[in-house]
Amino acid sequence: MGLLDHLARRTEPARAESTAAPADAVFTTKALRKFLACLTSRDSPTLLDLGPVVGSNVTFFGEQLGCKIFVEDIFADLDRHAREGKLDALPSFFGTRFPQEAGTVDGILCWDLVDYLDWKSAVALAAELTRLLRPDGALLGFFGTAQRGVDREYTKFIVVDDANLRYRAYPAARGRQKVLLNRDIIRLFSGLQVSDSFLLLNNLREILFRKPAA
Amino acid sequence: MWPKRDEGRPPVGQPPTAPPPVPAAAPPQAGGYRPETTRTMEKDLVNIGKSVVIKGELAGSEDLTIEGQVEGTIQLRDHVLTIGPNGKIKAQVFAKSVIVLGEVNGNVTATDKVDIRDNGSVDGDIVAPRVAIAEGAHFRGSVDMQRRNVAQPAAAAAKPAAPGAPSQPQAQTPPAAAPQRVGA
Q1: What CATH number should be reported for the domain whose range is A25-210?
Q2: ipTM
Q3: A49 close to A32: Cβ distance less than 8 angstroms
Q4: Where are the domains of chain A?
Q5: Which of A147, B106, B151, B154 has the most CB atoms lying inside 10 A of its own CB?
């Protein structure tokens, strides 16, 4: 009896762990540190975040780095277009989507947005982002290296610190599109230069672009 | 034979026992009496109810909770403004602190903090030294936290990692002239 009780008690925590929601995975980031260095070299930098709003990221970039942050959730726009069956209108939509003036943004967090776009939409978005970026400004993009089947989910990238990102998945109306080759990515952001590129263990390519100084 | 013990007196060498605690706020009695503390708290809470619609300039010098609709300007320079879950604001907001549980459409300026809670929504620009946005909140606009003279932690961290340090495999993107497929 005593032994059975003891065994039952030992298995309880394991059962509790299995029913709990899986914790978000934390992955190393190599490019974020360099991206931050680009931002902090400026006084009161302006940051454009293309992902969904994340409170702790706002605190990190706003409070700790003194950035002025524009949150423009393009994933939400993409989702809306997918639900309404208006994906063909995305390229023209991107042309008028951003209210910021040309050459006024110091840094852009593009995350893995391009992975979810068709080529035409990606070209339109890249052109807009290049236009918004200030000379010497930086753009951080993530690109998958393998098709992951039907993964209808986006990822929120939550900054843990300058070397770690927490990945939090949430439902999407559209999955990832074709995996882009490096040369395609370079062609896409032809107005920018690749400053640094890293292939992570989780098969994500982190690429930091810089806009050439005028 | 033995002297009768005095139950009310503490034993020698021990401090006298404290009187039994009095409940801080007793429930209201039948005659309508309420303790002073409750009355004071209620006096400081001002609430604009669900059915109230205000168009124009709203200014005040006490904390305010809005559950109704306001269009125009709200100014509570030294006080806390709470937009309740039913509150719908289409206004420029100026306050010491703003807590959003409902909807705000307009720019929000706070001298202390803006707090967008779960299910709260802000479409507009926020200017405040501290901003908290909960998971599940909606926000579209810009955040300016007006940092002044804050250290730059990332500047020092921007150095490349030591060559011997354990790290993930890195792949420099090949130049455009010699493209190479990674992964897949």
Answers
A1: 3.40.50.150
A2: 0.82
A3: no
A4: 25-210
A5: B154
The token pair that represents A175 in the structure block = 């999955």
A184: nearest CA partner in chain B: B179
pTM of the model: 0.74
Select from A37, A70, A146 the Cβ nearest to the Cβ of B154.
Answer: A37
- Phi and psi at residue A107, in whole multiples of 5°? -150, 145
Convert the pLDDT of each residue in A31-88 to its tens digit. Answer: 999 999 999 988 889 999 999 999 999 999 998 889 999 999 999 999 999 999 999 9
Cβ–Cβ under 8 Å, residues B169 and B163: no
Which residues make Cβ contacts (< 8 Å) with residue A99, sequence separation at least 6? Answer: none
pLDDT at residue B43 in the model: 53
Whose CA is closest to B182, among A194, A154, A135, A130? A194
Question: In B, which residues are within 8 Å of A39 by CB distance?
Answer: 154
Each residue of B132-154: pLDDT tens digit?
Answer: 999 999 999 999 997 554 334 44
What letter represents residue B76's amino acid? L
Q: How far apart are CA B64 and CA B44, in angstroms?
A: 9
Q: Nearest CB to B170: which of A36, A182, A199?
A: A199
Domain edges within chain B = 44-138
